[in-house]
Design goal:
By secondary structure, the chain is mainly α. It has helices at about 5-15, 35, 40-50, 65-70, 85-95, 110-135, 145-165, 190-210, 220-235, 250-265, 330-335, 365-370, 395, 430-445, 450-465, 485-500, 510-515, 520-530, 555-560, and strands spanning about 75-80, 240, 245-250, 290-295, 325-330, 360, 370, 375, 380-385, 400, 415, 420-425, 425-430, 475. Among the domains are: about 5-60 and about 100-270 and about 550-560, Serine Threonine Protein Phosphatase 5, Tetratricopeptide repeat, CATH 1.25.40; about 435-465 and about 480-535, no CATH class. Helix content is about 40%, strand content about 10%. The relative contact order is 0.14.
Length: about 575
């Protein structure tokens, strides 16, 4: 083992706990010694610790990307009690500088951007520490060695993938890096493409070494790794320059995405749920469409549980729920669900006027995603959205409720923690419909849009059949596309479909950046939405900068200036 204790200690240094050299010679309280950890009996515990970190998030550093994926995409407003209520999330919404504003919180939560960085690298350090221990045993001593190594590399790949799409330029180190060398690794040591390659390598190892299924729910398998590899290659295929512009598309990587998703389809491991609603209800979690999810828990012996802390702020401000009215869908997002007489989206005119539920036909996925006044919450006709009483600042943000990540107040999965509603409902990170849409996207960019047509239509057909729980809350109409007359039309259909199918699940902003259209799209969004919501008056997206978060200044300082700040910051 390569100095596991030192690796762990230096990882904590990188995480901003200290930069004092004297600390490196001490064994911190609560940390096992190398002799204690370095045993076959403890390997499974180390792997479990790497998995458990997925659920150790907080509403100030979420593993469900509603702040970075939805607020920055124009699909949701911050909500809450005005701009000063977690100002950093307001800053994300209007692309103004992030300020460490959580001064009433414990010191490690003051800087939300730094906290996210720290938490992801804590997950990576857990993976690397466990991999170092695994390297000291043989297959004969521990028959599951290859499988556990593959799980750990899969998890490390996940943590790095998250960091990559958030920050672009990150330090990369694996279990083979000697502890003394950790602080010599720059965040620009690898090129953009080299970083993607390193992340993909972890998933490739998972594909080669993981079993097709696992007895324990929540563990990664061959096809989970295959899905993450496909996602990584899809992002990598859109080659970016240093100004974050897409300069070319790598067709070879797109071909591999198609092949990987085809293999996943052929495996029969996943399927679209019969009803779209089943993806967002506790009683159906780990269903046929869940490719990988954070396995949430409450009352598990930990102080606060590993429940849905990512969504703790997002429940309506009401006696049934408690707090706090964040994550409010935008009018633009709601309007996108309008359909024409042919049951197809209104690509160019959907946002000309706000939705009138009394007369406008909509895709039924709207009522699975957003609760509007007068509509049932979580399919319960006895729990009707009353309007402004459920909102904290309706004059600023409106009163829509994003409900996919929420649960019914009577769900057995629910626990209260102070004013917050916490549940054990999983956060699904990859759904099968998402995987299918990756294949459709790759096919369209390869000029094979006719092959993408049935994939998109399969998803739309499922949407059309998913009205049973909706209590006829709206006028529904959604139909498959009869054809794709051109590649450009198919591209528009695919991008629109991703917004509808995966709405408010934390993907949209990263899609816009991948496609290289974030500036174009957000300029159009702000031009109209600021007339509806004046708090957006000064919102402006700066190309070449706002595609990625700033490297936390705390981390630059701790690196002694080795880390370079992202352009524009």
């Amino acid at each position: 083992m390569k100095n596991t204790s030192l690796i762990l200690l230096l990882a904590f240094v990188l995480l901003g706990l200290t930069s004092c050299q004297d600390f490196l010679s001490e064994t911190p309280k609560g940390v096992l010694s190398e002799e204690q950890v370095n045993s076959i009996e403890n390997i499974d515990g180390l792997v479990t610790a790497a998995y458990s970190w997925l659920g150790n998030d907080h509403y100030t550093a979420t593993n469900f990307h509603w702040p970075t994926g939805n607020l920055r995409a124009g699909d949701a407003h911050k909500g809450g009690n005005g701009a000063g209520d977690i100002f950093a999330y307001h800053a994300l919404s209007i692309f103004t500088p992030l300020i460490a504003d959580m001064s009433t919180f414990p010191p490690d939560l003051i800087d939300l951007n730094n906290k996210k960085w720290e938490r992801q690298f804590t997950g990576i350090s857990r993976c690397n520490a466990a991999l170092s221990v695994l390297a000291t045993v043989t297959e004969e001593e521990y028959p599951l060695k290859a499988v556990r190594e593959a799980e750990l590399r899969f998890l490390r790949g996940h943590y790095y993938f998250d960091l990559k799409i958030l920050y672009k330029r990150i330090p990369f180190f694996d279990e083979n890096v000697e502890g003394k060398d950790l602080l010599n690794i720059s965040n620009v040591e690898l090129t953009d493409q080299e970083l993607w390659d390193r992340i993909a390598d972890d998933f490739r190892f998972g594909v080669a070494n993981l079993p097709e299924s696992q007895a324990q729910v929540g563990r990664a398998n061959k096809y989970t790794a295959m899905a993450y590899l496909a996602k990584t290659l899809l992002f990598q295929a859109y080659v970016q320059n240093d100004q974050n512009q897409v300069t070319s598309i790598d067709n070879a990587k797109l071909e591999e995405v198609v092949d990987l998703v085809t293999d996943i389809e052929s495996s029969g491991s996943y399927a679209l749920a019969n009803d779209y609603a089943e993806n967002f209800l506790y009683e159906f979690e780990n269903g046929s469409e869940s490719v990988f999810a954070i396995q949430r828990s409450i009352n598990d012996g930990t102080p606060d549980g590993r429940g849905t802390w990512s969504s703790a702020l997002n429940y309506p401000q009401s006696p049934e729920f408690g707090c706090c009215g964040f994550h409010v869908p935008t009018e633009n997002f709601v309007n996108a669900f309008k359909t024409g007489p042919d049951g197809l989206p209104l690509f160019d005119t959907y946002n000309d006027a706000n939705l009138n539920p009394a007369i406008d036909q909509v895709d039924p996925r709207l009522d699975h995603t957003v609760v509007m006044p007068g509509k049932p919450f979580k399919y319960d006709p006895a729990l009707i959205h009353p309007g402004n009483p459920w909102a904290r600042d309706p004059a600023t943000y409106g009163n829509f409720v994003a409900q996919k990540d929420l649960e019914h107040p009577e769900c057995p999965c629910r626990a209260a923690n102070g004013p917050f509603t916490i549940t054990s409902k999983n956060d699904v990170l990859i759904r099968y419909s998402d995987v299918l849409l990756w294949k459709a996207e790759a096919l369209i960019e390869l000029g094979r849009q006719d092959e993408a047509l049935p994939i998109i239509n399969q998803i739309r057909t499922r949407a059309a059949a998913s009205t049973g729980r909706l209590n006829n809350a709206s006028i529904y109409g959604v139909q498959p596309y009869p054809s794709f007359p051109s590649q450009e039309y198919a591209r528009q259909a695919l991008r629109f479909e991703r917004r509808l199918e995966l709405g408010l699940e934390g993907h949209r902003f990263f899609d816009l950046v991948r496609w290289g259209i974030a500036k174009e799209w957000l300029d159009g969004y702000f031009a109209v939405e600021r007339t509806r919501r004046p708090y957006l008056q000064d919102a402006a997206f700066q190309a070449g900068k706002n595609e990625y978060m700033p490297i936390p200044q705390t981390q630059i300082n701790l690196s002694g200036g080795l880390y370079e700040q992202n352009p524009g910051y």
